Amino acid sequence: MKQPFQYTKPSTYTTAVTDEHTGSIRFNTADVRPETQAATDVSVYVEALVEAAEDYLNGDEWREAAMEATPCEFRPAGSEATGQQIITMADRSVAFDPRKNWDNETISKGEVLAGSVIFTETTDTALVISHRATILDHNLMAGFTVQSMEQTADKMLRDIEHSAAGKVAAILATAPSTEVVSEAMPTGKPMEVSEDLIDIMAMNINHTVGTSLSDFVVLLPAALLSTLERAANRAGLGDDVEALIGAGIQPYTGTDHGIFMLPKLFTSLSYRERQDGSVWRIEATRNPNAQGWDLEIMAVVDIIANGMVKVKLTTDGLQTVQVPFPLVTRIALS
After folding, report:
1. Which of 25-34, 80-89, 191-200 has the highest mean pLDDT?
2. What is the residue extent of each domain of the chain?
3. Is 229 helix (H, G, I), strand (E, B) or coil?
4. Is the dihedral of CA 301, 302, 304, 306 positive or negative?
């Protein structure tokens, strides 16, 4: 005779489903192990997600994709970002804070001649890319598939990319080497809007750092992407927005700061490697309060987008001053 509360969970229980059919509900009395029921084990899901993110983000494939999207470098831990020294291609008048020369004359504008050297530096603010997601146990206990995991990973990486680009846009919006032009937001059908946007970008090319749209990477609000994709489709280019515009494209989410035109030869991103040579830190920790797992993905990147150039304060060129040089064009659409 069994003692009170000493019951054995049945291994099989049969019940009627309809008047004509019966079904079987099976209970497993053994502990659930990843090797036997991995599709319902949350820890297996998290482990696979972390491994997939680690393999991609800290592998050659992501570095190649990053370099293709925007000019960038990956520098060893503890080293400084690599500035650039590039010669201008055209004359440019530069306004700056009033300075006095040796003749006690106040100078607030100077000419930068073609052939002058531009020094690029990092912006005052570095970008910390940090994303955290909580994976709750009860959302996965019913099971998951490889396809659902792939979709989750793809969506997560896309969100990180667009969010990070939005933070870059916020930093560039206040950078001293960003010049702002205001244009009216085009209206009409997608093809008309796209043509007007391309015309606006072409008319606002900074010819001291580039001669055509192909010399730039365009940072634009993600809300404009569908319009441009539709125009590309109508033009027989599929969804290839870059072929439509003739420049590299990077959508961003968050606050709309307008369209940014980043010259490929004068701006870049500098990713900081960790001690082990990896760029991204990917960690999963158990969150007992939420009954789930916290997944964190982090990286640090410097934005090399501040341009400096020496301007003569005297005609003989013996007295010069270093002032910000406009590199990035921000088109504010109103």
Report:
1. 191-200
2. 38-333
3. helix
4. positive
